[in-house]
Design goal:
This protein is mainly beta. It folds into two domains: about 90 residues, Chitinase A, domain 3 (Roll); about 55 residues, Thrombin, subunit H. It has two helices and eleven strands.
Length: about 160
């Protein structure tokens, strides 16, 4: 069965950036997704379209088609006092390199990475961690199957009977 819209696809893969492994899934614990439902980068799906179980793949996605350029406006200084909970500054969270979930003024959850901790502010980067990076994928198609009607109506895969 070939990969096309509304198929459940299982893959093993390695993602490298500048030769460094940054993400992977092995055959025993593959990435499983509903093809054509926007769960993966569009160009990733384009590159595996029509492949079948057992096929291998190898391709690059330029940063413009991946997670985009680094947006300097997504690097912001936040007042340190927003990290006060019950009157106590949460200093154990404020470590350079930590990624923290925060909410914007509309209540949307955003993940930001701490770049710098100052006396009165915390500089955070809300860009995707792979923004500005070209992505290099290698992998193998482990399985392709028809999605169930429930998976299609929910828009995602149900693994082992779980929602």
């Amino acid at each position: 069965m070939n990969i096309s819209n509304d198929k459940v696809v299982s893959i093993s893969y390695e993602l490298k950036v500048n030769g460094d492994l940054v993400d992977s899934a092995v055959a025993d614990n593959p990435l499983v997704f509903l093809y054509g439902h926007g769960q993966l980068l569009p160009l990733f799906e384009t590159n595996i379209h029509n492949l079948k179980t057992g096929d291998s793949f190898e391709f690059s996605i330029p940063y413009a088609d991946g997670y985009g350029e680094v947006d300097e406006e997504a690097i912001i200084d936040l007042p340190k006092d927003i990290f006060v909970i019950d009157g106590v500054l949460q200093e154990d969270m404020l470590v350079v390199g930590n990624t923290l979930p925060l909410r914007d003024s509309e209540g949307n959850e955003l993940n930001g990475t701490i770049l710098e901790v100052g006396d009165t502010h915390v500089r955070m980067d809300f860009n995707h961690p792979l923004a500005g990076e070209d992505l290099y994928f290698t992998g193998k198609i482990i399985d392709v199957r028809e999605a169930t009607s429930e998976e299609l109506s929910h828009g995602h895969v149900h693994a082992h009977g779980h929602h």
